[in-house]
C-alpha cells in the first residue's frame, strides 16, 4: 500500500488529511477484500465500474477515519507511483470526481495525520451506515490466504529458491508436482499413481481443474490477473472458492488453500501446467 510516510497532505477543502491511497480496478485491487474485482467492490458497497476507482484513505479534522472513492483513477495511480519513488505528491481530488465518502478504512493504515485526534471511526450522527473495517487476518481464512498469495507474488524469487527441482522428479525420471498436473488426466482415466497418497493432492488437482475451467467459462473480472516479471515471463495470479494460485508463466506454481492453514504447496511444470498458464495469461486482466 502506497503512502506519504509521516506527512499527511490536506485536501483542497481542508476536510480530509490524506494518508494513503490504493487502486481498486479489475487489474489491481486489494485482494484481501475479495477473490475478484466485483467482490472487492461489493465489500465497500460500490458498483464495479469498468475503469475502477481510486481509494483515498484519510482523517477529517476531528481525526475520524474516511475512505473516499473517486473515479479519477489516473490521479491516484500517479500519486502512488510518486510515493513509491520517494517523491512528494499532493493528492487533492476534485470534488466532481468523488463517487462516495465511506466511514472507516477497509485496510490497515500504519500512519496518522499530525495535529488531529487519534484515528477513530466517525459517529453515527455523521456516518451513513457502519464504518468499514479491515478483514480479520488474525486467523487463517480467505483474507489471510489471499494475503499469502500476494506475498508470494511480490517475493517470487525468495519463495522459488526454497524449492528444489529434484523434488518434482518421480523414480522413473518423469516430471512431477505436489499434485502433478498430468495426474488430472490420469485421474480421469482412473490410473492412480504413487503421488495420489500424499495429503492435499486431490485438493490441488481440484484447483487446477477449476482454473482450467476458467479458460472455457470466464470467471468474474479480476479472478485471473497478469503482471510484470523479469524477462519475457509474467506473474500470474488466479483465485477461486477457497484457493489462490500464483505462478510464473515460465516456471512453477504455488497453491494456497483455505482448508490447509498456512501451507504453501508447489506445483511443478509437468506436461500440463505450461499450457494451462499460457491459456490463463491470455485471458487475464493486465494493468494498463
Account of the protein in words:
The structure is a single chain. The protein is an alpha+beta fold and 288 residues long. The chain contains 7 helices and 11 strands. Strands 1, 2, 3, 4, 5 and 6 form a 6-stranded antiparallel sheet that branches. A 5-stranded antiparallel sheet has the order 7-8-9-10-11, sandwiched between helices. It is elongated and about 60 Å long. It starts with a strand and ends in a 5-residue tail after the last helix.
Draw up the topology in text.
Layout: E1 2-3, E2 9-10, E3 17-24, H1 37-43, E4 53-59, E5 65-70, H2 73-84, E6 98-103, H3 142-154, H4 156-160, H5 183-188, H6 201-216, E7 224-228, E8 234-240, E9 243-248, E10 253-257, E11 265-267, H7 273-283
Helix pairs in contact: 6-7
Q: Over the alpha carbons, how many angstroms does the gyration radius reach?
A: 21 Å
Query: How much beta, percentage-wise?
Result: 15-25%
Low-pLDDT parts are 1-13, 169-196
Helix content: 10-25%
What is the rounded distance between the termini? Answer: 19 Å
Overall form: elongated
What's the pLDDT, averaged over the residues? 85
**Class of secondary structure makeup:** alpha+beta
Q: Tell me the number of helical segments per DSSP (H or I, 4 or more residues long).
A: 7
What is the strand tally? 11
> Helix-strand pattern, N to C?
EEEHEEHEHHHHEEEEEH
Biggest sheet features: 6 strands, antiparallel
Oligomer: single chain
